């Protein structure tokens, strides 16, 4: 079994990867929120059709509405893409988090194993000392 000391660099690397994955997930979530906010702004920009006075104004308004509708559709596609990125980053973070937990568990087991070995060694030393002091002719 690897010693806890030898596992430490692997643990640290795993934690760094997990932190990087968490940061990437947070950034993906921020982007998604920003795109959703932009969509709301675009949708709020639509105004109800009022009474129009000229054909030219009507055509301009209709062209604007078409462009606005296209911008909204494009923003919705961007949001769906952002949602996929968020899910991918979430999966990446989960995988790195599980990896970190594995290394943490392995290091903990290694420390426990080392502790038991040290306790056994100390007990063996005490037993030897007790045997020597109980032996005939030994100074007490």
From TrEMBL:
Residues 105-130 have a biased composition (Basic and acidic residues). Its main location: membrane. It is found in: Cell membrane. Pfam families: FliJ. Keywords: Bacterial flagellum biogenesis, Bacterial flagellum protein export, Cell membrane, Chemotaxis, Coiled coil, Membrane, Protein transport, Transport. One of its GO terms (biological process) is bacterial-type flagellum-dependent cell motility. One of its GO terms (cellular component) is plasma membrane. Residues 10-45 form a coiled coil. It comes from the Bacteria. The keyword Transmembrane helix does not apply. NCBIfam families: flagell_FliJ. Belongs to the FliJ family. This is Flagellar FliJ protein.
């Amino acid at each position: 079994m690897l010693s806890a000391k030898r596992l430490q660099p692997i643990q640290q690397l795993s934690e760094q990867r997990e932190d990087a994955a968490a940061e990437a997930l947070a950034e993906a979530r921020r982007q998604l929120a920003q795109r959703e906010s932009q969509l709301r702004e675009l949708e709020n920009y639509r105004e109800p059709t009022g009474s129009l006075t000229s054909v030219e104004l009507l055509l301009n308004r209709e062209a604007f509405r078409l462009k606005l509708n296209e911008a909204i559709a494009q923003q919705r596609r961007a949001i769906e893409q952002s949602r996929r990125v968020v899910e991918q980053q979430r999966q990446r973070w989960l995988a790195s988090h599980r990896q970190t937990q594995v290394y943490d568990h392995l290091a903990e087991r290694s420390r426990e194993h080392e502790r038991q070995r040290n306790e056994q060694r100390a007990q063996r030393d005490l037993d030897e000392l007790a045997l020597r002091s109980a032996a005939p002719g030994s100074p007490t």
